[in-house]
Amino acid sequence: MSQSSSIFPLRLENIQVRKRGNVLLNDISFSLVGNLTTVVMGPNGSGKTTLMRLMHGLERPRQGSLNWAITSEQARSKQSFVFQTPIMMRRRVDENLYYPLKLVATPKQETDLLVNHWLSATGLANKAKLPAQFLSGGERQKLAIARAMITKPQVLFLDEPTTNLDGQSTREIEALLRKVKPDGTCIVLSTHDLGQAKRLAEQVVFLNKGHLCEVSDAPQFFQKPQSSAAQLYLDGDIVE
Ligand SMILES: Nc1ncnc2c1ncn2[C@@H]1O[C@H](COP(=O)(O)OP(=O)(O)O)[C@@H](O)[C@H]1O
Ligand SMILES: [Mg+2]
Predict the structure, then answer these.
(1) Would you tell me which of 7, 49, 144, 191 could form a disulfide with 86, CB atoms 3.0–4.6 Å apart?
(2) pLDDT by residue (tens digit) across 88-132?
(3) Is residue 240 in some structural domain?
(4) What is the per-residue pLDDT across 130-165, written as a single tens digit (0 to 9) for each?
């Protein structure tokens, strides 16, 4: 958690990802400079999860290159990833927050401050001593975000973080994410929820069938996307 140089820009060049003979992503090139909330959009099966996992180092490209401004090991330690279905430790809510700080040997006083801050930011302070397994889906996802944020990463990846949640939980999670950016963490979030993309995106990366259709500033994307696939998607058509 030391003050250190930026991991951005992230540059992807001509990336291909294959699995079991299938090409999941092909010819993907773009850069992220790290100052904009980026939303990865596209229909189901378009490669959003694969691209997020690739950027976080969980998938290896078959071809092409992916480079952060610093070495990939250093970059990895400055990123967090929140999965669509959060995995909680079978421990108390507060212990799920203490654990990542323990891994990076945070001093006790700072640890206590950070845990209290995030318990309060997530509205989970009154559940701190309960087993995390007792939490609702929305509460689990908020805890997962707090756990990911507590080590102050430079980038927070969230893969469809509200897909299985009700409207109230979705609102609460989006409010929590709005508080993250002023802390200096760049959000990269995938969703196929158009409303969520409109509410959160400053920049859109649009995928279709494993291809990168466009990377656009959000206002431009929602008014006049460059690709016909994105236009069909925004019109609510089935994208083929
Ligand atoms: N482990 C895998 N092996 C083979 N194909 C996969 C695997 N994971 C995903 N796919 C396929 O890759 C495509 C992209 O998947 P994914 O990245 O999960 O898309 P999205 O997140 O946009 O729904 C889909 O057609 C999916 O069926
Ligand atoms: Mg997905």
Answers:
(1) 144
(2) 888 999 999 999 999 999 999 999 999 999 999 999 999 999 999
(3) no
(4) 999 999 999 999 999 999 999 999 999 999 999 989
State the burial class of residue 86 (Cβ atoms within 10 Å of its Cβ: 0-12, 13-18, 19+).
Answer: buried
Overall domain count for the chain? 1
CATH number at residue 158: 3.40.50.300
To test the pocket of ligand 1, the residue of 48, 50, 158, 164 to mutate (highest count of ligand atoms within 8 Å of its CB) is 50
Q: Please give the Cα distance from 76 to 153 (Å, whole number).
A: 9
Number of H helices, E strands in the chain: 9, 9
116 CA to centre of ligand 2 in angstroms: 32
Q: Is the CB of 21 under 6 A from ligand 1?
A: no
What's the 228 CA to ligand 1 centre distance in angstroms? 22
| 111 falls within a domain | yes
Range(s) of the domain holding residue 187: 10-234
Quick check: CB of 42 below 6 Å from ligand 1?
yes
